[in-house]
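Go through this fold for my students:
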Amino acid sequence: MANQSDDNQLQIIDISLSTPALITAFDIVAADEGITVCYLNDTVYVGTAKSSSGTEFHIIDVTDRNAPLFVGDLEIGDDVNGIFVKGDIAYLATGDSDELIIVNITNPANPSISSGFAAAGDSEDGKTVYLVGDTLYLGRLQGGRHTDHHEFHVIDVSDPLTPINLGSIDLQADLSDIRVRNNLIFMATSDPNNEFQIWDISDPSNMTLFASFNFPQDATGIDYEDNIVYVSVRSNDALRIITSGP
């Protein structure tokens, strides 16, 4: 878990118990509050808020859950709101002018920025990232000066040095989380009439709305498993479970 505090930003919890129990609270020195985590192969990647004197992307070895080890970090210069890791590459959704930052983690003790992608608009922070093959899906917040600045982007990252935008959608709402299955993308948004949205992304240059669902509050997170979608909502029945039926 990412702890929203500037102390013990990473917390490891045993959920095998009837009452979940904290195993370890790990303090990332000189970092601000925790925002997001990504786990892969006994390594946790932590994104933290913008720091005036520290770093925002952190790599931690959790082979021993009781004694995590700091491995390396990288100065991003803004909030790291979302992380997706595949192989030796970490994809970050950030509050930087490059809403997508691609990081080479071949040497985890010394990660380095490979490239970035700046979408149109200067106030829509990157919020979430999801990768399928060589295609990355980026979600952004709406921002304060919204003028046809698209919150959803499909990006070709087959060459991590040169990301290419394949298509985008102007949702006119925060896009807080996404999951992709086959030709459909499932979105958690702040659209007051369609907080849960499904889009057909078969053709990234011409994506179409497939279905939607109205909740009484903003959708904040999403996951998908076995034809069931789990959506977290800001309040009023904070967990929604959705399926397509028999």
Summary: The longest strand covers residues 34-40. The chain is about 0% helix and 50% strand. The two ends are 35 Å apart (CA to CA).
